[in-house]
Design goal:
Radius of gyration: 12 Å
Shape: globular
Number of strands: 9
Bound molecules: FE2/S2 (inorganic) cluster
Strand content: 25-35%
Number of helices: 2
Distance between the termini: 32 Å
Order of helices and strands: EEHEEEHEEEE
């Protein structure tokens, strides 16, 4: 799995931008910056965190994240187990910032 050393995650529609260090999931990177995305299991099975990726590319920390092939093709991602491969833009209207 090839990871970008660090990348930026932008969360829309709020426009918040957080840094994503290498080896850190999108969910964890957002939380480290004070942005809480919907989540539950945090291991890629419950799908509570599923959201559309507007731009970018991700790789997964687990071989079978709980997404169908169709969902992946539509650009749906699971931020709790997704690592950025370059800058990423997600649509998460329910995100909250503290
Ligand atoms: S929090 Fe359960 S799949 Fe992401």
């Amino acid at each position: 799995m090839e990871l970008t050393p660090s990348a930026l995650l932008r969360i829309e529609p709020q426009g918040w931008v957080v840094k994503v260090p290498a080896g850190v999931t999108l969910l964890a990177a957002a939380e480290a910056a004070g942005v809480v995305l919907p989540s539950s299991c945090r291991n890629g099975t419950c799908r509570a965190c599923i959201c559309p990726m507007i731009a970018g590319e991700v790789v997964y920390a687990i071989p079978w994240p709980g997404l169908s092939r169709e969902e992946k093709q539509e650009g749906q991602v699971l931020p709790c187990v997704a690592h950025a491969r370059g800058d990423v833009v997600l649509s998460v209207p329910g995100a909250v910032r503290f």
